[in-house]
Amino acid sequence: MKSPALFEDLNILVTGAGKGLGRAVVEELLARRDRFPRIKIALSARSESDLNGLAELARGSGVETLILPGDLAQDPVAGVRRIQKAWGRIDVLIHSAGVGRFGDFGTYTPDDVEFVIRTNVDSTFLLLQETFNLMKNQTPQAGLRGQIQVITSVAAEKPFEHSALYCMSKYAQRGLLEVMRIPAAKEKIRILDVRSGAALTPMWGAVEPGMEARMMKPSDVAGAMVDALLLNARATIETLTIRPVGGDI
Ligand SMILES: NC(=O)c1ccc[n+]([C@@H]2O[C@H](COP(=O)([O-])OP(=O)(O)OC[C@H]3O[C@@H](n4cnc5c(N)ncnc54)[C@H](OP(=O)(O)O)[C@@H]3O)[C@@H](O)[C@H]2O)c1
Fold first, then answer.
1. Domains of the chain
2. Residues 18-39: pLDDT tens digits?
3. What are the beta bridge partners of residue 11?
4. Does pTM top 0.90 for this prediction?
């Protein structure tokens, strides 16, 4: 028997919605309209053209959207404030926007450090803080004030060669989520740390065909994230580690 839609009226902000894992989450939500009958989706990324195409797809299936083009590294909170003005509340934040620069330790420049840390660490901190402050003042829906899912990485729990800067930024995201869970539990806000392994997205650039076959598809990660959104409000999944069945790449 089909279980009832628990969280029907959801205003959802997806960062990094233009490509890769963020886009796959939006597509997954649209594919499961029976479980999410009355959602609104705000789409955030730098490339407006990516967001326009996705918004058209969403509108085609009857979903109201808000397009929030912009660089989170420049202004991490503008999108949250626009949603608050337009829709009043945010029920779900899916934070997928993130970047990486990779290389031998010893070769990173100050620009590399600034680029990765500003987006993955500074903006994540300020975006999550702004969202938490909005969510904690919301009336609970079906027992929850909000849900926050952040795609960190398996690089938030395990060292990878050529990934010193990326790993540092992902461990930092994990640290923030672990501390945030303390006040979030009191406010009935669920925090999910999505520790994803390799999924074939534009972040990887061109990959060898042999390697492609060893990677997950973005929909594998997105499907598990959307399942977690639907968990009864009594419970919370704190960490979702998902990797290719053959192991990390
Ligand atoms: N793919 C994997 O194997 C994998 C594994 C583990 C963890 N992750 C993490 O998952 C997240 C998503 O990765 P992905 O593979 O989907 O990457 P992706 O294909 O490169 O897509 C990233 C998305 O984030 C947006 N974005 C990046 N920096 C931004 C900024 N400063 N402001 C606003 N938007 C920004 C991009 O927008 P524009 O293109 O318009 O700039 C794009 O829409 C990242 O945090 C990544 O570290 C990925």
1. 9-242 (3.40.50.720)
2. 999 999 999 999 999 999 989 9
3. 40
4. yes
